[in-house]
Amino acid sequence: MNDLFARHRQVLPDWLALYYDEPLEITHGEGRHVWDADGNRYLDFFGGILTTMTAHALPEVTKAVSEQAGRIIHSSTLYLNRPMVELAERIAQLSGIPDARVFFTTSGTEANDTALLLATTYRRTNTVLAMRNSYHGRSFSAVGITGNKGWSPTSLSPLQTLYVHGGVRTRGPFAELNDRDFIAACVDDLRDLLGHTRPPAALIAEPIQGVGGFTSPPDGLYAAFRKVLQEQGILWIADEVQTGWGRTGEHFWGWQAHGQSGPPDILTFAKGIGNGSSIGGVVARSEIMNCLDSNSISTFGGTQITMAAGLANLSYLLEHDLQGNARRVGGLLIERLRAVAAQLPGVREVRGRGLMIGVELVKPGTDEADPKSASAVLEAAREGGLLIGKGGGHNTSALRIAPPLSLTVAEAEEGVAILEQALRSAY
Question: 42 forms bridges with which residues in the sheet?
Fold first, then answer.
């Protein structure tokens, strides 16, 4: 392992982050478990950053990929592609967007990049609204709308970005307000902001902020925002890269917690739909999707082998009601974690919904972020046989818990027991 780590450092960028003091090489997985190169077994509560959505080595997906690989792997979007059309039909219907068109990419970053291209072209302006503490990918344009300093390596951007309040409920200038007053204050802030600038192209927002530590506003905030946006024709882009496909349990899409004013104009997706295969994409009303006046293709977006994986994975998800499982088992996880948190002075908050849970850590006796303890808990959990993630904005440090949606009650209880020991070792 030390040899592989040395080779990694020799040929890959210094900024390519690795978890753990002794980085982990994962060699294979099954169900909700993975194994490392030394044969150690781990319960996976992070799923390759929310990407292994259903299960590791899911037989239905493995079979579909293998059979497709035996026929043809790739032909590009210059040719008709039956699996791509079939998956697009299903996603268009599930999206809730009327007269929807779907464009496939290879990642969430590329999906958000495409959404920005569509919105700015359709609206003829490069001004974009984004949320503070947000993350939308690592391309030049996506970095330019990311409101999280730790993931924004440059201030240069092809876009003029204005940041809006509301993505973090329990911190910031409106944290002490009740939910109704919080939404009202954020709407007032948005109206004020729009009074000082030319009308933007769009607001892009994650219904639950992923990298930001699984933070979210009260339900209905983006519906209230949308009423204001519609007054000026400003589009709403829902970044569902992490919240989509039933992960929140209560809804299939994160935007549905804010759906009182209708669906978003543009929806982006990635991660879980491929269960590890490189699939991203954009859904938009046809008039928006068709606004480009030059040719465009995607060499690897919608390739047959990834579409086969997506179709098999989506079918499994729906047929086995994994959204319902996320609601039930996720509710149990949150309940257990809150019981543990009540006994520990360093746990400020357990938040989230479904199988998308954040545990925010602070220095005991303060409201100050505790990234050192977050790293220590990450290490201790690994020693106990549990893999989790971490994240947060400029003044937060949070553990990120997002297992595959097929997680069982027994595995949830096992994970909580390991995490409790890890937390107690740090506090």
Answer: 34
Collect all residues with Cβ–Cβ distance below 8 Å to 251 and sequence separation of at least 6.
Answer: 257
What span, in angstroms and rounded, lies between the C-alpha atoms of 6 and 366?
A: 39
Instruction: Name the residue among 377, 343, 374, 372 with its Cα closest to residue 360.
Output: 374
Contact 54, 275 (CB under 8 A): yes
Tell me the pTM.
0.96
The DSSP string of 349-379 is: EEEEETTEEEEEEB-TTSS-B-HHHHHHHHH
**Do residues 123 and 234 touch, judged by C-beta distance below 8 A?**
yes
Q: What angle do CA 404, 409, 413 make, to 5 degrees?
A: 100
Handedness of CA 373, 376, 382, 387 (dihedral sign): positive
- pLDDT for 58-79, tens place per residue? 999 999 999 999 999 999 999 9
Mean pLDDT, range 49-57, rounded to an integer = 97
What integer is the mean pLDDT of 400-413?
A: 98
Q: Is the dihedral of CA 133, 136, 140, 145 positive or negative?
A: negative
Residue with tokens 């971490």: 390
* CA quadruple 359, 365, 366, 372: dihedral sign: negative
Yes or no: say if 167 and 209 are a contact pair by the CB < 8 Å rule: yes
Structure tokens at 415: 């994970």
Rounded CA-CA distance 149/177 in Å is 26
Count helices and strands (H / E) in the chain. Answer: 13, 15
